[in-house]
Amino acid sequence: GAVEVSVRSPIACWFSAMLHCFGGSVLSSLMLAEPPVAFLAKGTNILLASSVWYFVFYCPQDLFYRCFAFLPLRLLVAGMKEVTRTWKITAGIAHADSHFKDAWLVMVAVGWARGAGGGLISNFEQLVRGVWKPETNELLKMSYPVKVTLIGAVLFTLQHSQYLPIARHNLVFLYTIFLVVSKVTMMLTRPATSPFAPFEAAIGHMFFGLQKTPCKVKGEGAASSNGSSVCDQSSSEQHHDGVKKRQAKKTE
């Protein structure tokens, strides 16, 4: 019979953690037709990531996790992670340019995949753990790290193609400072919406005509006495009026 892997299987958990850590390398290698297991050749990185995974989940009394749950230490680690995100984006763009010269769409895609691969490959990682949540697809509803990585991939690609008049080290410095400051601010303030929400709403309304429906202004629509919302009633009334008009045109 088929071999069933438990969700709590250490092997599945370890492989899931490795996908989170090296998802960018795996995804970018697949996009460039390279071996997706190339990241396993870096034994030091695998050993370091495996050690962190083991201490987080199997350290007695959760001492390792409690130490890094200390807020100043969490902020430090989060800032270091954002610094490595910049390195991953620039390395992905340079790697893509070595395969496809001046193909800026490829450079954007590979830089995006290298910097946010852990999020973009999350659905496959869920399958490894025996979980399937298609509504968490990052392409359907992007999280903040995926969005900011895409913006960085576009900026560094424009700079690499000499369409953005700024030195590379200056762009690296400014983008990294923005990542660290925004990440620390979000961790301290815990905002309800993404920092890009106002810009997304403005761009969506300007170019695609997207706007909030009136029913979401007050509590996602008021409920009527029979349990249906006002929006449902208004839509059904409009549909009924449309049917009447079409029937009247046919009789004419």
TrEMBL record:
Gene Ontology CC terms, in alphabetical order: endoplasmic reticulum membrane
Biased composition (Polar residues): 223-236
MF terms (GO), sorted A to Z: identical protein binding; potassium channel activity
Catalytic activity: K(+)(in) = K(+)(out)
Transmembrane segments: 14-32, 39-57, 170-188
Compositional bias per record (Basic residues), positions renumbered to this chain: 242-252
Membrane topology, as annotated: Multi-pass membrane protein
Region (Disordered): 220-252
Entry keyword set: Endoplasmic reticulum, Ion channel, Ion transport, Membrane, Potassium, Potassium channel, Potassium transport, Transmembrane, Transmembrane helix, Transport
InterPro entries reported for this sequence: TRIC_channel (IPR007866)
Highest taxon of source: Eukaryota
Main localization (coarse): endoplasmic reticulum
One Pfam family in the UniProt entry: TRIC
Family label: Belongs to the TMEM38 family.
Assembly and interaction partners: Homotrimer; conformation seems to be controled by binding to diacylglycerol (DAG).
Function: Intracellular monovalent cation channel required for maintenance of rapid intracellular calcium release. Acts as a potassium counter-ion channel that functions in synchronization with calcium release from intracellular stores. Activated by increased cytosolic Ca(2+) levels.
Name this protein carries in UniProt: Trimeric intracellular cation channel type B
Species this chain originates from: Pterocles gutturalis
